[in-house]
Write a structure and sequence with these properties.
43% helix; 2 domains; binds zinc ion; Alkaline Phosphatase, subunit A; 17 helices; alpha/beta
Amino acid sequence: GTEGQAFKPINKWFKEAGKSAGCVTTTRITHATPASFAISVTERWLEDKIAEKYLEEAYDVMLGGGIEHFLADKREDGRDMVAEFKNKGYHFVQTKEEMMGLPMDDKPIMGAFTESHLPYTLDHINDEELLTKVPTLAELTDTAIQKLSKNKNGFILQVEGGRVDHAAHSNDIGGLIYDQVALDDAIKVAVDFAEKDKETLVIITTDHGNASPSLTGSGRSYSESTEDFKKFHNFKRSNTVLMEKLKENNSSSYIKELISDATGIELDAKEIEIIQKATYESFYQDVVRNQRSLIVALSDVIGKHLAVTWANTHHTSDFTELAAMGPGSERLGGFVRNTELFQLMTSAAGVETNVPSFAEATG
Ligand SMILES: [Zn+2]
């Protein structure tokens, strides 16, 4: 807080009220969103430390990426957090098979399935090895709900489609759409549970907009816009993977084949040249986006084929969408401050707190 005091995170309020609590994300499980629901630290990038804090709190289920913050040979202090979690009575899972085979007993679950973030959905669904090893966001959500809903006193679960944000930072339209759909699949899991349960409040929102992707008119009388946009159906790789490959080979013939294989788009000579030049960092700096040249070149060239444009490569400051269903949702007005959702969630669940509402705190 403003005076250096540590806030008690919402998951902890729920645990102290006898309820269960968990977090699910496609980012590292130690990343900002799950960490802010679960623990309190001074700096979001202290992710080794955040992993240690999770051990102290013993939340019922935490699932995502980021095994690097738990492994002795990856952590700065050399602590084997996987062993420490297991010693403390956790199930620690690192593959989809291990997660699916979990007994739903009283032990808390920690799961980290990749070294850093989980793969973009686009890369995930087109890679047999990743598909076998890494669960989808919907599968993670389903496991978490099964675990948490065993508590008759209720639960809180935070689910994040975190790589939608990363795709937007990369102005990657394929990456963004497929991860948004993966989030949609996870929302269905939550909504299906809530409709059956009838006592669950589901809130769907985001912490901010990002990069303002926009559909632009294409063709005579804009008649080609829809057909252009539909090209994302052929996409098979995120721009992040393409950029990795372009580091190794930037010949014209390779660029042509790479983009054709990954997107189904046949680039002309001029477009190939733009991407090739952009593999040299200094070329094609964009005044507004002020970003690495290759991100900008790839998104502009590919975006032109899809009739998609981007405003920038960072978070926006506009209002965000908020949707809710279930008990408590009727209390939401047309315009809600983000800080008011804490009160909504705790009071809807019958969790008493001594935290002043935003209106009380600011007079
Ligand atoms: Zn971001």
